Every structure is written in C-alpha cells, then in structure tokens.
Amino acid sequence: MAVSPSARRVVRERAHRHCEYCHADERWQFVRFTIDHMVPQSAGGSDDPDNLALACRNCNERRGNRLEGRDPETDTLAPLFALHRSAQLLCTSQVIRRRSLCHIRH
Question: Across residues 62-81, what is the average pLDDT?
Fold first, then answer.
C-alpha cells in the first residue's frame, strides 16, 4: 500500500526537509527525498508516520531493508535505528553524523 499524502506531509514537516539519517538538506539535492519505512513493510512495518522517515537516496539505498547490523566496536548485532523522543534517529546509541550511516558488516 502506498504512503498517504497526509502521512508524507507529516514526515516532511517533522524532518524540516532534512534527511532524518544524515541530516542533509533536501534543498541542496538534485532529487527529492523519499519516504523510508524504518521497519520495512516486508518485516511487518506500517505506513504510520512514526514508522516513516524522510531519507535521501543515498541513505535509503544503503540501509535497504536491514533492521540490524554488526556494531564495529563490540562485534555484536545491534538495531540500526530507533526513533528517539525528539524524532532524531539514533544508530547504535550514537546520533548519525552527516553523510555517514552505520558501518554495516554481514
């Protein structure tokens, strides 16, 4: 099912037109950012705005449909993203720095 226009609007406004993973500004990009399912639909994720994030193409494609990755510091599996109360996305307990997603090893 496609994400509704009203849910898209909520996500875009919440993100202030910035990628919620790397914080890139959509105004400086050549293509419009996409709406990403943090818990993918293939894993039972919903179209609820709390499960959606505004994502630049690079972040959306790099993350794919993975829910967890290997933490390079502890060598343990850790969830990639969890929604924080402030709507910032966290990556293995650290705020994702501009243009750098988690180090994912398979």
Answer: 80
